[in-house]
Specification:
The protein is an all-alpha fold and 143 residues long. This is Group 1 truncated hemoglobin.
Length: 143
């Protein structure tokens, strides 16, 4: 998991670099993730990983997992340039009072990376999705 945390730290550092976003790069990421169906499978596998992880699964007790799956699929689809619109609450609002710390956050990111690897998402595409998720870090950790 240290390697995964290091990978996330590298993506976080790179996210401060100028990013030339274009419609083509968004479409490419959406396609690299397997479009909506592929994204849904990635989210499903990530959630299975989280459910089996005693370090973080307590954060999800009482959560409507079907709804969470839907919202995360929407969010990743939207962030990757797909035809979806995220309909959920802000990350700060969603994580208020959960007490998510850096270790919890990195564990979840690790499950996302493993799910993307399972579905043969190329590493550059993985990094692009992670870079688009990085700005949410401050809204999730410590709230």
């Amino acid at each position: 998991m240290t390697l995964l945390a290091g990978a996330f730290a590298a993506v976080t550092a790179c996210s401060s670099l100028p990013y030339a976003s274009s419609e083509a790069s968004h479409d490419d990421l959406y396609n690299a993730l397997g479009q909506q169906q592929g994204i849904a499978l990635i989210v499903e596998d990530m959630l299975y990983g989280v459910a089996g992880d005693a370090r973080i699964n307590h954060h999800f007790k009482g959560v409507d997992i079907v709804k969470l799956h839907q919202l995360l699929t929407e969010q990743f689809c939207d962030l990757s340039g797909g035809p979806c619109n995220y309909s959920g609450r802000s990350m700060a609002e969603s994580h208020q009072g959960m007490g998510v710390d850096e270790t919890d956050f990195n564990a979840l990111v690790g499950h996302l990376i493993l799910a993307m690897e399972k579905h043969d998402v190329p590493v550059p595409a993985q990094n692009r999705l992670l870079a688009r998720l990085v700005p949410m870090h401050s809204e999730i950790v410590g709230h």
